Amino acid sequence: MTTPSTRHPRPHADVLRDTATLTGRILRHWRGRPVSILLGLLFPVLMVVMFGYIFGGAMAAPGGKYMDFLIPGMLAMTMLFGLESMVVSVTNDTAKGITERIRSMPITTTAVLAGRSAADILNSVVGLAIMIATGLLVGWAPNRSLLQALASVGLLLWLRFAFTWVGIYLGLLLKTPESAVAVQVLVWPVGFLSSAFVSPDTMPAWLDAIATWNPLSATATAIRELFGNPSWSAGGWANQHSIMLALAWPAVLTVIFLPLAVRQYRALAA
Amino acid sequence: MSATTTETGTSFVPAAETLGAVLAPGARPPRPGALSASMTFGWRAMLKIKHVPEQLFDVTAFPIMMTLMFTYLFGGALAGSPTEYLQFLLPGIMVTSVVMITMYTGVEVNKDIEKGVFDRFRTLPIWRPSTMVGYLLGDMFRYTMAATVILVVGLVLGFRPQGGVVGVVAAIALLVAFSFAFSWVWTMFGLLLRSEKSVMGISMLVLFPLTFLSNVYVDPATMPGWLQAFVGVNPISHLVTAARSLMAGAADTGEITWVLVSGAVCVAVFGALTMRLYNRR
């Protein structure tokens, strides 16, 4: 009589290794479609050219240099644009059955979602580098220390990290790539109803309130302060505490959407 | 009725008179005229809108969103106040929104080719260009609708055209006429390119620079010299200036003539190219 083979308990998954593997998977995917990635990275550049040169001369910006006001706003805006591509990427994986395959593997939920987040952060670092280079080319002049510049980049990546979880959650919620287009309805109003392009002071009172308390505005105003660029605003609590808000808003978004994303991912089996 | 014997059996070939009696019991209807055929295809385009009302999103929601966004978000920074900016912006936004939806003509043509409907039309005893003209007639309704939607939104927001009803109607008529002419560019691409996505891609590539690098949003005098040069020769800028002048009650005959002539050139060049491609398919 043969003895039944004893099933060895699987050792605890190495979360960091799994995260790195899944991050690598997404990065390899991007290598396979360079055109769409390039277009995604260059779209904010197009926006800078459009707003800077077409509207710039007509904008009543402080100090007469609209580019100095615009570039920090566009850096913040670049962090928001990633949300759409994240949703499309997640819904594509769900539609193709890849998410189901990954779920059947001995990989923790943390590693799967953190892998996506890490890949997105790496992508946004490239996006930021392109945007900063564009800004310097068109005459943007940050005039503070390198440390403050790095702090600005840190705040931008912190915002992107928060938006990543919003994107993952929405991607898991929407399921189909076609419905992912609906995210534009969220991205564009959030982007434009902010201080990215113009000061909320120039808007009607009801819009001013929305734009002032927009998470994107907090980061845009904070990095303007850190880069030493004009803020074009008459003060107010939100403007005076912009760095604090730039730290708080992404934290709030992460606290809300990270657990929701994890819960939604686990609920896929149901 | 005659019978023919073959290796496989007997097949019956009906006599010509018998066939004639079955297939043509009445007199053959007259061949439809050019206008009649074009109107029929125009009605077909209208029915498509009725059955797929989502098509109207670009004609309604998008223009409203653009008008509200630019008026309230940028109006204060660009002109001191949203109401003041609206007087300058509205004719331009109207032109932008209508010109942007001209690309759907090419998309529709391409869709019909893909489905094989197009080949059916080509077998009909009708005036050859009527299918193309039909698409454009249906689209003219969309253009008029988009322009009207923007005008109504503008009036609600505080736009007050000095040219009155006559000026506004003339501006919309000029815009629709130019858009009809401009649509021939996209019918050509609809026949030329293989997929619907390609048609949309090419049209976006052309339309975005044309509409944004123009005098729609700001006075070109505030732009850098190299941009001003492009804005000056951009046909959209001429159309916007003409529409603004009509709505302001001070018709700029030079610009209106420029728009009408460029429209005629569009029809002559791209209409001819479209028909050549259509006949060679």
From TrEMBL, chain A:
Protein family membership: Belongs to the ABC-2 integral membrane protein family.
Q: Which InterPro entries match?
A: ABC2_TM (IPR013525), ABC2_TM_bact-type (IPR047817), ABC_2_transport (IPR000412), Nod_factor_ABC_transporter (IPR051784)
Q: How does it sit in the membrane?
A: Multi-pass membrane protein
- Protein name per Swiss-Prot or TrEMBL: Transport permease protein
Q: Where are the transmembrane segments?
A: 35-57, 69-91, 121-141, 147-172, 179-198, 243-262
Sorted alphabetically, the Gene Ontology cellular component annotations on this record are: ATP-binding cassette (ABC) transporter complex
Gene Ontology process terms (BP): response to antibiotic
Its subcellular locations are:
Cell membrane; Membrane
- Its primary localisation, in coarse terms, equals membrane
Organism encoding this protein: Microbispora triticiradicis
From TrEMBL, chain B:
InterPro entries attached to this UniProt entry: ABC2_TM, ABC2_TM_bact-type, ABC_2_transport, Nod_factor_ABC_transporter
* One GO molecular-function entry: ABC-type transporter activity
For the biological process aspect of GO, one term held by this record is:
response to antibiotic
Q: Does the keyword Cell wall biogenesis/degradation apply?
A: no
PROSITE patterns in alphabetical order: ABC_TM2 (PS51012)
Keywords, in A-Z order: Antibiotic resistance, Cell membrane, Membrane, Transmembrane, Transmembrane helix, Transport
Which GO cellular component does the record give, naming just one?
Answer: ATP-binding cassette (ABC) transporter complex
Q: Where in the cell is it found?
A: Cell membrane; Membrane
Domain ABC transmembrane type-2 as annotated: residue spans: 54-281
* UniProt superkingdom: Bacteria
Q: Where, by residue number, does the polypeptide cross the bilayer?
A: 56-79, 85-107, 140-159, 165-187, 199-218, 256-278
Please state which protein family the record places this protein in.
Belongs to the ABC-2 integral membrane protein family.
- Database matches in PANTHER family: NODULATION PROTEIN J
Q: What is this protein called?
A: Transport permease protein
Q: Which organism is it from?
A: Microbispora triticiradicis
